[in-house]
Structure formats: structure tokens, C-alpha cells
Design a protein that fits this description.
There is one protein chain. With 269 residues, this protein is α+β, with helices and mostly antiparallel strands. The chain has six helices and eleven strands. Strands 1-2-3-7-6-5-4 form a seven-stranded mixed sheet, with helices on both faces. A four-stranded antiparallel sheet has the order 8-9-10-11, with no helix packed on it. Helix 3 packs antiparallel against helix 5. The longest helix is centred in the last third of the chain and has 20 residues, at 190-209. The structure holds biotin (BTN). The site of biotin (BTN) has 21 residues, from helix 2, strand 3, strand 6 and strand 7.
């Protein structure tokens, strides 16, 4: 499945929506594809489409993002043709308390696809980072909109560093970020990788909408080396250490502090 290319003419390696369509093994995710050379942010456009009621599973993908958004109002560096920058529109009917599980299931789906297509073994960091050899390979940005306490839509934004070399990253990111190419030494066919991720996403999302929450948290925990180990937090500019004991059924982190108290840590997007 992985295509090894002899050289790095990325211009000939454009994402091809019609090839993607033919490679897809999904029922609804990616059946409607909106592909662009350049967008400010795929999440931003996906939100606009979701407000108009676009089909569930609609995929917005761009070769480059000029204002890619990361979690906690950070920027997401999204250079042309070297990564996968995409967003999926979903309308789950689950109780909103469980929605955080969708970002966990997205990171599981990315890790599974990487493992299926390469010899790499990605690990997961709470809430939704995908790491290889301790460096960040991919991130998920979950955005939701509610009306009268009901979810209107959910956007799953996924960013994956695929064919960058280390010098393709800005200097300030080089110690923390990595790509599939850096870690595996091969160039990855992005369309094949995307098709595999969407297949996994649909399977894992189907567990989610049918209430298989445990299945998602178990899959996530299997890939998390920090589980049962020390984790550190910043609170009021102080570092606090605790033990990452477990995930609860909604995907929040349960941490035991030195006092013996167990606290539930929620994400803040
Ligand atoms: C993170 O901070 O780890 C989340 C990064 C999410 C980046 C992706 S790239 C596609 C989608 N569009 C965006 O603007 N952000 C997400």
C-alpha cells in the first residue's frame, strides 16, 4: 500500500480527489469531497458548509492552509503538498457529554492507519496528539456548535505531517514536530493514507454513535504510554505532578495527585 518514490518532486504528488474517490472504502465519510489548492483553514470552510446543512461525512481538504488552526488558539503550520490538512462534518446525536470521545477516536484512527501502512508504531498523548518517537506527527481540532442545548454540528479537523523533511519545519517546531517521511525514510502516497484514515474513522465513529464508548477508550489507552505514569500540569504558573490513572467513559483524564485525591481533567479546546 505504501508507495516509495525515488525522488521528491512534490509537484507531481498532488492530492487527486478522483483517485481518492476510487480508493475510498466508506459508506458516508468522504462521499462528498471539496478539495482546494489553498484555504485559510479547512475547519473554517467546513463550519460554513455545516451551517448550510451539508451532507454528513463531507470532507474539506486543502493542499495548503494559510491560517491553519491548532488547539488552544495556536497556529497549525500547513505547508503546500507535504501534509494532510482536512476537516469532516458530522452530526452525531449522542449526549453532548460524550462528544470529546470523537477527538480520541480521530487520533486512534490516524494511529491505526499509520500502523497499517508503515512500520511505525505511533503513540497517543491526551487529549488528541499522535506522536512518533515522542514527537508530534498529527493533531486533531474538534469544533462544535450548539443551538438550544442541542448539537448543530461537529467538525473534526485533522492535520498530519506526511512528507516533510526536518528543514521543511520552521526552526522553532523542529524539536517537537516530526513527519512520516522523517520517521520512516520513505515518501508516503497521501491519497492512500487518507483513504485508510477515513475508513478507520468511519468504523470508529460508528462505534461512537452506537454507544460503543468503551471500545474507543480501550483502543486509545492501548496506545498511550503515559497511562499509569507521571503527568505534569501547569496550574497558576506552578507545575503539579500526578499519576494518569485512567480515562472515564467520556474520555476525560483521571489523575491521582500526591494527596491521594483523584481529579477528572477535561479538555479545553
Ligand atoms: C492541534 O493543535 O494539535 C490540532 C491541529 C489541527 C490542525 C488541523 S489541519 C486541518 C484542520 N483545519 C485547521 O485549521 N485545523 C485543523
Amino acid at each position: 500500500m505504501v508507495h516509495i518514490k525515488k525522488n521528491r518532486f512534490v509537484d507531481t504528488n498532488l492530492l487527486d480527489p478522483s483517485l481518492l474517490k476510487r480508493s475510498l472504502q466508506t459508506r458516508f465519510i468522504g462521499k462528498n469531497i471539496l478539495a482546494f489548492n489553498k484555504l485559510a483553514s479547512t475547519n473554517k470552510l467546513a463550519k460554513r458548509l455545516a451551517k448550510k446543512g451539508t451532507a454528513e461525512g463531507s470532507l474539506v481538504i486543502a493542499e495548503q492552509q494559510t491560517r491553519g488552526k491548532g488547539r488552544l488558539s495556536r497556529q497549525w503550520y500547513s505547508p503546500p503538498k507535504l501534509g494532510l490538512w482536512f476537516s469532516i462534518v458530522l452530526y452525531p446525536k449522542n449526549n453532548y457529554e460524550y462528544l470529546g470521545l470523537t477527538s480520541l477516536l480521530a487520533s486512534v484512527s490516524v494511529a491505526e492507519a499509520v500502523e497499517e501502512l508503515t512500520a511505525l508504531k505511533p503513540t497517543l498523548k491526551w487529549p488528541n496528539d499522535v506522536l512518533v518517537n515522542g514527537k508530534k506527527l498529527a493533531g486533531i481540532l474538534l469544533e462544535t456548535e450548539f443551538s438550544h442545548n442541542e448539537l448543530t454540528f461537529l467538525i473534526l479537523g485533522v492535520g498530519i505531517n506526511v512528507n516533510q523533511t526536518i528543514t521543511d519545519f520552521p526552526i522553532q517546531l523542529r524539536s517537537q514536530a516530526t513527519s512520516l517521511h522523517i520517521e520512516s525514510g520513505i515518501l508516503i502516497e497521501r491519497t492512500a493514507l487518507l483513504a485508510q484514515i477515513l475508513k478507520n474513522l468511519e468504523e470508529n465513529y460508528t462505534h461512537f454513535v452506537t454507544g460503543g464508548f468503551n471500545r474507543i477508550t480501550e483502543k486509545w489507552k492501548m496506545r498511550c504510554p503515559l497511562l499509569k505514569n507521571k503527568v505534569s500540569f501547569q496550574q497558576n504558573e506552578q507545575n503539579i505532578d500526578g499519576i494518569f490513572e485512567d480515562l472515564n467513559s467520556q474520555g476525560s483524564m483521571l489523575v491521582r495527585f500526591p494527596s491521594g485525591e483523584i481529579k477528572c481533567i477535561h479538555t479545553s479546546e
